[in-house]
Amino acid sequence: MSSHKRYVVVGTGGRCRMFIDAIYQAPFSEHADLVGLCDISQTRMDFWNRHITGELGGENLPTYHADDFDKMIAELKPDVVIVTTVDSLHHNYIIRAMELGCDVVSEKPMTTDEVKAKAIFDAIERTGQNLRVTFNYRYQTAISKMREIIASGAIGTPTHVDFQWYLDTSHGADYFRRWHREMDKSGGLLVHKSTHHFDLVNFLIDDYADTVFAMGDLKFYGKENAEARGEKYSYQRYTGNVTKEQDPFALDLTADERSKGLYFDAEKDSGYIRDRNVFGDAPPVDIYDTHAVLVRYRNGVVLNYSMYAYCPWEGERITVNGTKGTLEYFSRGQGHVIRGQSDDELADEQYAGEKYMRLQKMFQPPESIEIPPAKGGHGGGDAKILERIFLPDLPPDPLKRDATHIDGAASILVGVAGNRSIATGQPVRLDDLLPLPPKASGAQASDVASLAGTAK
Ligand SMILES: NC(=O)c1ccc[n+]([C@@H]2O[C@H](COP(=O)([O-])OP(=O)(O)OC[C@H]3O[C@@H](n4cnc5c(N)ncnc54)[C@H](O)[C@@H]3O)[C@@H](O)[C@H]2O)c1
């Protein structure tokens, strides 16, 4: 009997490519068939069909408007629905797919608030179907190495985490050009982006958060901030109005085939403008770009988290401190440098990127930890998570990285609580939003002992 599973994708924007490409390539193509596409934009679905019949050598797939989701399931009978729509819509498709007898693979964030999370939990209980949330960051080689070291007991019992994430004026700014700038679509960056980071902390220290206190503000992007700095903009979008040379935040959606085919050409049937002026007000930016969050975990660990989205460079520093020592990971990307405006040679030298991991046990000198090389997107995370999604009969993962719907909820709830705390000035308990069961136990010292290079 064939072990092929049938998949459909709902939400055919940028992210679905990772799943589509994987399904058409070995080894995944031996176990998975993509059988249909669903979106509000026929242009976007046609774009992916051209990619499938062209680069991937597949056959043209049936396409369905979002209103015909049920019809698609009835006609194509997929085993699994892959959800890669706008964040605030994930729950609609997760729940309906399960009601129609399908399992679901959903992109992060699982959803954007506690009410939708509860509805997803209820659907899982009602239908018995399975939901996987694709936390690819857990599978990054650096993060996996950190979990291995912490699980080995090398820093003793974790007690305190410092987690800083810097988004630059290129990648960070992009959240303010797109639907992500609207709180009701993305839940703000504390949900949309930080769901990855809070999930990483949950994964690294092997517990869920209890109480969250946060401060946040919109300090840089948006019309009001620009005007307060004396900047005036006559355009609400970039394409056709301004070049990168005139405005460093400009984006030309006609500059490459993918942006043009997926977004510029699709404006006519989706109405979606992907290159809004980050300092415009149509629609206004109503998310925060500057965040500081304090979290107490159920096991007593305290987390000091910060994230902002207009840094000249991009990267992260994650330090996990314990009763026997400390583990630190630092990664600095290239940075957003506009060539020709200053000393390019110096820029090359300083912004070449930097990465290190150090373990320092108490009373001992620091030990440099080799970060295993990463292949593919998101620090090697994309390639690894695809294996876990599409390959059958995989051996158990010693690091226990596969995320459940409970993990999905546990990470968004920290962001949801953070947003509420910012609005009210009060700490928020996760149990008051949506009580979660105890975290399933993560990897223990015995699980990781066999992994090469485990720090003792
Ligand atoms: N794990 C990661 O590293 C990662 C990276 C990028 C994106 N993502 C996630 O993937 C998802 C998609 O992001 P993206 O960058 O592809 O965004 P996108 O804007 O490119 O695509 C979203 C798609 O949803 C479609 N859509 C809008 N309304 C719809 C509706 N009512 N029904 C069905 N489809 C609808 C849009 O037409 C569009 O094609 C998001 O949830 C995002 O958080 C995850």
TrEMBL record:
Signal peptide: none annotated. Pfam families: GFO_IDH_MocA (PF01408), GFO_IDH_MocA_C (PF02894). InterPro entries: Gfo/Idh/MocA-like_OxRdtase_C (IPR004104), Gfo/Idh/MocA-like_OxRdtase_N (IPR000683), Gfo/Idh/MocA_Oxidoreductases (IPR051450), NAD(P)-bd_dom_sf (IPR036291). Residues 6-134 form the Gfo/Idh/MocA-like oxidoreductase N-terminal domain. Residues 147-430 form the Gfo/Idh/MocA-like oxidoreductase C-terminal domain. Coiled coil: none annotated. This is Gfo/Idh/MocA family protein. It comes from Natronomicrosphaera hydrolytica.
